[in-house]
């Protein structure tokens, strides 16, 4: 354990970074309940509305790798504070936005700030707590708070939108950000990788972010352009070229954004792929469910937010159970159990109807899905950070957060396209029924993505890959 970590209260450090991570994750979903109000206030078109979410998640995901590597090279505390400052400033821009373009631009800037905060925060946790029982406990708290932030965002977004205005979903970040900066300067120790190159791979970060943006834009516009049109194919080709260019840059760079050899760590590669699949279904679930309760069931923003309050409780319950079950069943079995529950929950979401009820349809789906997610996030986070050398802690953290955010953005783009296509093919029935039919298809696709994650984990992870997690005492790093 680094000397700096022993000079402070480790649990206080954990609390501080969890507050910032909570703010970052909360902002990925807090806008969902406010979307109808924002659409009316800034005149978004129905097809452009998802960019309020995707501008944030894509820039977040695209620059997380740069943020993770920069945290290792420049200092984790320094990058953490810089990210919180940028995130808070962008929140102010969003709060005073006067046009749709200004809000989307501000959301992208928020995503860049989040890309500095999140990997720095997770690498601070993994370098503060030695691998073993204490890190499992710390990451259990981290996972519960990070995952719960998504659900709390829906409740808080509804409360602020209905009692004040949608602008306050951004203004609320300012006092939190200022407090986090001041406390971090005092209590979080500085740390960086031992082997410290002098350059960062900005070209790699720009190419991968541009490639992902073009890919998602192509998916979103494909129903309008036609899947086989020259414009759709051209966007797909451009995205592939940018992403291939990213790989070539990494192979040639003196200080690559991603040291490609890190993917030889099977636990890291498999857990990141699984998280990408899980996030693809989960982020879209929040998006569609929040629109369903407002546009179809007629809930106001506050009532819609409160409807998702049990999701937070389920996440906390699941995360607490995960820590106990990991000690009894091992880190390999627990995510399989959690994902199986989450799949059942997503299937329950496919039962929604135009005249559905909260107690009969939504609450059972929310309860089962949330507990399953709580059981899943803790062991997958542990899997993504085990067997990783200390100098790669920031990179591993960046990769894991990237999988979550990019998976969420791509999943939302794909599932939105599936839902919209289904809705457009039902012109004979009323609009609400067509919307609900599209949402059902999206939830079913989300369940299929989570099933793919289960199969991947079951096939690729063995007991030897989780031996260090299951051990009570930390062991030496081996790759």
Walk me through what this model shows.
This protein has 479 residues and is mainly α. It folds into two domains: 3-201 and 253-470, MFS general substrate transporter like domains (Growth Hormone, Chain: A); 202-252. It contains 18 helices and no strands. Residues 1-6 and 472-479 have low confidence and may be disordered.
In a few lines, what is going on in this structure?
This protein has 479 residues and is mainly α.
Show the helix and strand layout:
Blueprint lengths: L2 H4 L3 H33 L8 H24 L1 H20 L4 H29 L4 H31 L4 H4 L1 H15 L14 H24 L4 H23 L13 H31 L4 H7 L1 H21 L3 H17 L8 H28 L7 H32 L6 H30 L6 H4 L9
Average pLDDT figure: 80
Q: Quote the CATH topology of the largest domain.
A: Growth Hormone, Chain: A
CATH superfamily of the largest domain: MFS general substrate transporter like domains
- Largest β-sheet summary: none
Helix content: over 70%
Radius of gyration: 21 Å
Termini separation comes to 19 Å
| Class from secondary-structure proportions | mainly alpha
N-to-C SSE series? HHHHHHHHHHHHHHHHHH
Sum up the structure in keywords:
mainly alpha; Growth Hormone, Chain: A; disordered N terminus; disordered C terminus
């Amino acid at each position: 354990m680094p000397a700096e970590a022993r000079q402070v209260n480790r649990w206080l450090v954990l609390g501080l970074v969890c507050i910032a991570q909570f703010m970052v994750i909360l902002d990925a979903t807090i806008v969902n309940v406010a979307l109808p109000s924002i659409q009316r206030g800034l005149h978004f078109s129905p097809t452009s509305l998802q960019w309020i979410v995707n501008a944030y998640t894509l820039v977040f995901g695209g620059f997380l790798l740069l943020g993770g590597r920069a945290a290792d090279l420049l200092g984790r505390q320094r990058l953490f504070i810089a990210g919180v400052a940028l995130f808070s400033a962008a929140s102010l821009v969003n709060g005073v936005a006067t046009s749709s373009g200004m809000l989307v631009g501000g959301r992208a800037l928020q995503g860049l700030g989040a890309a500095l905060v999140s990997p720095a925060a997770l690498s601070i946790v993994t370098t503060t707590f030695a691998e073993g029982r204490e890190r499992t406990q710390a990451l259990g708290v981290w996972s519960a708070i990070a995952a719960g932030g998504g659900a709390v965002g829906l409740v808080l977004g509804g409360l602020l939108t209905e009692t004040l205005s949608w602008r306050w979903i951004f203004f609320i970040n300012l006092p939190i950000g200022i407090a986090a900066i001041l406390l971090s300067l005092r209590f979080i120790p500085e740390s960086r990788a031992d082997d410290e190159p002098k350059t960062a791979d900005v070209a790699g970060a720009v190419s991968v972010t541009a490639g992902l943006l073009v890919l998602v834009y192509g998916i979103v516009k494909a129903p309008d352009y036609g899947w086989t049109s020259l414009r759709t194919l051209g966007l797909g080709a451009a995205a592939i070229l940018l992403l291939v260019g990213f790989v070539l840059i990494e192979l040639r760079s003196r200080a690559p954004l991603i040291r490609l050899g890190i993917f030889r760590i099977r636990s890291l590669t498999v857990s990141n792929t699984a998280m990408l699949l899980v996030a693809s279904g989960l982020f879209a679930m929040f998006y569609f469910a929040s629109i369903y309760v407002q546009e179809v069931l007629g809930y106001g923003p506050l009532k819609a937010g409160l409807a998702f309050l049990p999701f937070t409780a389920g996440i906390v319950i699941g995360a607490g159970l995960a820590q106990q079950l990991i000690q009894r069943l091992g880190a390999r079995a627990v995510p399989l159990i959690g994902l199986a529950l989450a799949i059942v929950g997503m299937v329950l979401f496919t039962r929604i109807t135009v005249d559905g009820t909260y107690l009969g349809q939504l609450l059972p789906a929310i309860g089962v899905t949330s507990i399953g997610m709580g059981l899943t996030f803790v062991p997958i986070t542990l899997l993504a950070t085990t067997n990783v050398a200390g100098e790669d802690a920031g990179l591993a953290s960046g990769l894991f957060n990237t999988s979550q955010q990019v998976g969420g953005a791509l999943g939302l783009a794909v599932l939105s396209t599936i839902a919209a296509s289904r809705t457009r093919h039902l012109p004979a029935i009323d609009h609400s029924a067509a919307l609900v039919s599209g949402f059902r298809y999206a939830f079913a696709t989300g369940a299929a993505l989570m099933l793919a994650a289960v199969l991947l984990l079951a096939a690729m992870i063995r007991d030897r890959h989780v031996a260090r997690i299951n051990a009570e005492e930390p062991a030496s790093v081996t790759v």
